[in-house]
DNA sequence: TTGTAAGCGTTATCAG
DNA sequence: CTGATAACGCTTACAA
């Protein structure tokens, strides 16, 4: 490239970066050759020299889950806006896969990480990174981790909103279909709910997947007549599973039983009946986490501890109603 | 690192790569230092030396669209399986953004690209790349592009399936709410449909977004009584929009009008009534495109022209029925 | 205003 | 069996 323009690589570099003045004639000549040849500086070489890649990693368990897809969009938007690329690390809840990606991170292919795959086995793996590498936890916090940026929705507040809502409607006995008990997001939803509901709550533990909502609901139904008048599912996916089980059992929502979810994924408003749920700002979580992270990454600093809790919103739709008399 | 183990960098490299025999004692010592220090070779330096990054780019318009999210998952799975990472390039249908990402590609940050953002303005931008850079087109082909790998679902066949289905039910007049006319996928669905339907078809052109389905349906309804007994939307999103418009107009599906979509996104089976649609193997499209692409990338070859058309499947649900007598 | 040379952290080649 | 050296393609002192 330099040869083609009859100048040194240095000059080409400076023409392109504007890092030092270049004679206008020379610059023009260089630019014309650059565009004729379609030359673009090799980002690897540049990154090696600069000690940074302008790319961040996004670790999530499942990109086809609309919640994470929204979050990913927020991350990508923020990153793009600040001049960073995003490398997609889909773990499928698989620890081998997560390991591989953590390796990629430690090989300094990325300048920072937005970590949204908070399943517990991740902890030890993360430990090695945190404090030495810029990480922002999104959506899920990881217990016992050192200094980190944390951005989550207000899970506890959301649970509280649902609890109040059902109590106000007149429900006194509720069934909770929770997510994994070792996830803070899951337990926080539950504790918020129980605190506000004040009535009798029976818990069944699932895993945030649709199938577990279905199965748990089936099990609850199998014991005979359902004792509770309301069901609070740990997330919308589980609620949708529970809805199917309820329908199969000939129970109608909300006449026979009220049902509420969490997340407000797109499907929640599409099912019949549309689901009462807690809107979680997935996009904002991703966006905020990324903006926070990059603020430090750009200055070559390891981020400090800080927590951002984003507000949630109760969406009352048609799946909840007063209990049958 | 090398110093800490008392050997040369060369030896460290060989211990880690296994590229040449190393004395077992030396190797053990090196490995212990490696793990104590948590050393991982810098991928940038490695990539610079090797002339490849083991990362591919995935260009899509919108990761929060479930179709693309599924496709992305297929891409990521295939890539991961073959030892590649995926960098997420979400264009938001924005050409500036696409340009930035194409720049990233031309800077050789990636070894290849899966391109699934086939909006027409992309063509000239792609031209500069194709033939010099490994690209696989997924889901959407771009007209007039040179040698490329193309993987799409059988859009035309899918349209045909819907056409036959509606004709068999007894419909003779249909309204088509199409996607952008300059997308092959969209026009192919339409031509397949018209060919098989054999009846009278009125077309209205939208843009594959939910809102356009709603608007187009509204417009059709505004002209007075709907002349057609069946509506074929270019994709499920548009069908869901149309469904809302129909509902608002007091028309019920499928009693008053039959409605079919395309894609079989998750929401399609969740809406009420569940949508008759064409299942498009989004995951497989992504997976196939990536597998094909990497086959050449791994050998440092530019891929030849080849086309893979993946079969689609008609999912008959409750939104279609014989026309009212 | 421009060029030369060092160095970023690897791996391949060539020696020993 | 192991080490020195060059090279990957850039950017940035340092020189001219």
From TrEMBL, chains A, B:
Keywords (A to Z) from UniProt: DNA-binding, Transcription, Transcription regulation
Gene3D superfamilies linked to this entry: 3.40.50.2300, lambda repressor-like DNA-binding domains
Keyword Transcription regulation: yes
Domain HTH lacI-type, chain residue ranges per copy: 1-50
InterPro entries: HTH_LacI (IPR000843), LacI/GalR-like_sensor (IPR046335), Lambda_DNA-bd_dom_sf (IPR010982), Peripla_BP_I (IPR028082)
Pfam families from the UniProt entry: LacI, Peripla_BP_3
Segment forming the signal sequence: none
Disordered: annotated span: 1-21
Molecular function in Gene Ontology: DNA binding
Entry keyword Transcription: yes
Chain segments annotated as transmembrane: none
Stored SMART domains: HTH_LACI (SM00354)
Protein name: LacI family DNA-binding transcriptional regulator
């Amino acid at each position: 490239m330099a040869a083609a323009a009859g100048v040194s690589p240095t000059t080409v570099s400076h023409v392109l970066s504007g890092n030092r003045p270049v004679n206008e004639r020379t610059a023009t000549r260089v630019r014309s050759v650059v565009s004729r040849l379609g030359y673009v500086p090799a980002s690897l070489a540049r990154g090696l020299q600069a000690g940074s890649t302008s790319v961040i990693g996004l670790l999530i368990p499942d990109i086809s889950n609309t919640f994470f897809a929204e979050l990913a969009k927020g991350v990508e938007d923020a990153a793009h806006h600040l001049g960073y690329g995003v490398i997609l690390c889909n773990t499928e809840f698989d620890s081998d896969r997560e390991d591989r990606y953590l390796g990629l991170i430690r090989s300094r292919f990325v300048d920072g990480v937005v970590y949204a795959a908070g399943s517990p086995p991740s902890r030890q793996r993360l430990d090695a990174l945190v404090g030495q590498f810029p990480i922002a936890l999104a959506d899920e916090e990881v217990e016992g981790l050192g200094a980190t940026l944390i951005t989550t929705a207000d899970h506890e507040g959301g649970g509280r909103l649902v609890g109040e809502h059902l109590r106000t409607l007149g429900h006194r006995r509720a069934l909770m279909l929770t997510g994994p008990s070792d996830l803070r997001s899951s337990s926080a939803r539950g504790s918020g709910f129980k605190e506000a509901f004040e009535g009798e709550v029976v818990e069944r533990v699932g895993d945030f997947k649709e199938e577990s909502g279905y199965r748990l609901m089936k099990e609850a139904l199998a014991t005979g007549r359902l004792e509770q008048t309301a069901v609070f599912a740990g997330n919308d996916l589980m609620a949708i599973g529970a809805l199917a089980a309820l329908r199969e059992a000939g129970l109608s929502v909300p006449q026979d039983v009220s049902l509420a979810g969490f997340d407000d994924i797109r499907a929640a408003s599409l099912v019949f009946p549309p689901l009462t749920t807690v809107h979680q700002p997935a996009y904002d979580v991703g966006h905020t986490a990324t903006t926070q992270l990059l603020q430090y990454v750009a200055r070559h600093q390891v981020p400090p501890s800080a927590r951002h809790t984003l507000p949630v919103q109760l969406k009352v739709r048609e799946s909840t109603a007063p209990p049958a008399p």
